[in-house]
Amino acid sequence: MLDVDLFADTNLVDPYPMHEDLRESGAVVYLERYRVWAMARHAEVYAALTDYETFCSSVGGRIRSRSALSAPA
User: Fold this and answer.
1) Pick the residue with more confidence: 2 or 8?
2) What pLDDT is recorded for position 53?
3) What sign results for the dihedral spanned by CA atoms 16, 73, 35, 62?
4) Is the pTM of this model over 0.90?
5) What 3-state class would DSSP assign to 36?
6) What is the spatial distance between Cα 19 and Cα 40, in angstroms, rounded to a whole number?
7) What confidence score (pLDDT) does residue 18 get?
8) Could you give the count of Cα atoms lying within 13 Å of 64 in the half-sphere of its Cβ?
9) What domain range is 27 assigned to?
10) Residue 1 in domain
11) 25-64 per-position pLDDT tens digit
12) Rounded distance, CA 42 to CA 47, Å?
């Protein structure tokens, strides 16, 4: 869980420190302020964007299985 204001002036002017915090927080991070899950690492974002069967927005914002959140072994 990470408490970050994505739209704070400092993050809008220079987002790179915030991006680094997101990446260091884990492969998938829960943003409490917005009540959403986020990914900021290239490998995980790429995997989610190219695996339409697991990560499908047409069924809503639910996650089908915890294994989709697990880091590779």
Assistant:
1) 8
2) 82
3) positive
4) no
5) strand
6) 7
7) 95
8) 11
9) 9-69
10) no
11) 999 999 988 888 899 999 999 999 999 888 776 766 555 5
12) 8
What token pair was written down for 54? 């697991």
What's residue 72's pLDDT?
Answer: 54
Q: Please indicate, yes or no, if residue 46 is contained in any of the structural domains.
A: yes
Domain count, the chain: 1
**Are the C-beta atoms of 11 and 18 separated by less than 8 Å?**
yes
pLDDT at 71: 52
Asked whether residue 49 is assigned to any structural domain, the reply reads yes
Tokens of 66: 């915890």
In terms of residues, how long is the chain? Answer: 73
Q: Which residue has the tokens 């869980």?
A: 1
Residue 24: count other Cβ atoms within 10 Å of its Cβ. Answer: 11
4 assigned to some structural domain: no
